[in-house]
Amino acid sequence: MEKNKRWPVFGPAPVTFVLIFVMIFADFFGGDIVPFDQWMQQFSSSQVEEETPPQSPLARLVRGKDRRKLETTGFACDVAEHSIVCLADLPVRINTKNNITVYDSSSHKVQEETSVKPYALQKDKYLLQYITPVRIVHGDNQPPVCQYNHEVPAVIFSSGISGNIFHEFNDILIPLFITTKHFQSRVFIILEDYDPSFVAKYRKIFSRMSSYEVMNPAANRSVHCFPGMILGLKYHDNLALNPSDIPGGYSIHDFRLFLGETYGLKFTHVSQIRRPTLMFISREKTRKILNEDEMITMMKELGFRVIVATAEEARNVNKFANTVNSCSVLVGAHGAGLTNELFLSAGAVMVQVEPLGLEWAAAKYYGNPAPGMHVHYLRYLIEPEESSLTELYGRHHSVITDPESVYAKGYREVRAVYLDQQDVRVNIVRFRKTILQALKLVKNASLTR
């Protein structure tokens, strides 16, 4: 009988030789040059950081010494640059009678307490002031008696300042996906600072992330027993997921697929949209486009079917997601409405009108994430003459000529001037070139598909 074939096993030396050869080959033919010592450092660290795959789904949310602590004590916290996530891989009792208090069953000889504000953006001190803290009590020999028992771990987080679609997705829904997707809906959501309109707005997402109704702890006011707990949500970056970061393996592509399945989005690639369709996001309060009627007329003349979207229409996410998905191009001034790029099909175009003083924010929050979504990004940086601030302050005022001097005064001053006071009157001749570029990208996507 033929013996089982065995694959050759190579040690680290041949592998290192092959990698060095590939580096030299790439360098010779003009590839990007990476210093050898940096490359070797990356190679070494990737070997050192390799860990045995965790047995518990909770353990995927910590690494290194934090994972070892979770495995030995049953409790650990991942404290990262942006977020804090605390885990209990042991029975906990959660009392919702007076805010939320968690009692873990760890064997602390002395009672200790930890307090965490369960919001993904820990660096945002402005938002954190509105988040209710959750107490974790370790080593209490007389915790309250259980009134309800559950078979899945609890996940506790705050709804924060809901009502702004950027913060709803960036600070809550994407971090929730990152933190709990691998549990396959087997978690029980407890929403601190519960907002019923927020839960209703995203009911479809919550129903896919958890098989249970979202709990309002203020209305519940009882003691629940869970086999484990997640307190807080993991954050990666603005409208982004990093596959190499905790818990590993998820990208923005995965989240967009999830949205497509959740809302039944019809188009996966812009080439499937027969007629070039453009959505223009109309702002009604701040950063308004003062001559939007002229813009819309120009867009129609170029051959687009134009959909004008208002904030009121966007509140119905179930319907609005499909409307955005049916569009080839999304156009709007810098603001939360551009978060809807999440629903665009691959190959579509997002055009952002960048008001004065907001170039960095435009790139950081909406422009930089677009390529990861396979969405083309075009920026239209306005001239001083297109900003209402020029009329308000004068062409040679520091607000116009030196935005850094305004930034030096702090966020409140920046917000008051560049976000709240500024409107835009677009130069139609200049902007037409940007829309023509968007149209070309859409047509090329259809030809090369």
Give me the number of helical elements: 18
Structural class by secondary-structure content: alpha/beta
End-to-end CA span: 51 Å
What is the helix content? 25-40%
Largest sheet: 6 strands, mixed
How many independent structural domains? 2
Give the C-alpha Rg.
Answer: 26 Å
Q: Low-confidence stretches at least 5 residues in length (pLDDT < 50)? A: 1-49
Q: How would you describe the overall organization of this protein?
A:
This is Alpha-1,3-arabinosyltransferase XAT3. Its main location: Golgi. InterPro entries: Glyco_transf_61_cat (IPR049625), Glycosyltransferase_61 (IPR007657). It is found in: Golgi apparatus membrane. It is a single-pass type II membrane protein. There is one protein chain. The protein is α/β, with parallel strands linked by helices. The protein starts with 11 loop residues before the first helix and ends with a helix. The protein folds into 2 domains: 57-257, no CATH class; 264-448, Rossmann fold, CATH 3.40.50. The model is unreliable at 1-49 (pLDDT under 50). Strand 3 and strand 4 form a beta hairpin. It has helices spanning 12-28, 36-48, 64-73, 125-128, 165-180, 196-201, 203-209, 217-220, 252-263, 292-301, 311-314, 317-325, 359-367, 388-393, 398-401, 403-407, 411-420, 428-448; strands at 75-79, 84-88, 92-95, 101-104, 112-116, 134-138, 148-149, 154-158, 188-192, 223-226, 229-231, 277-281, 305-309, 329-333, 349-354, 376-381. The strands form 3 sheets. A 6-stranded mixed sheet has the order 5-6-4-3-10-7, with no helix packed on it.
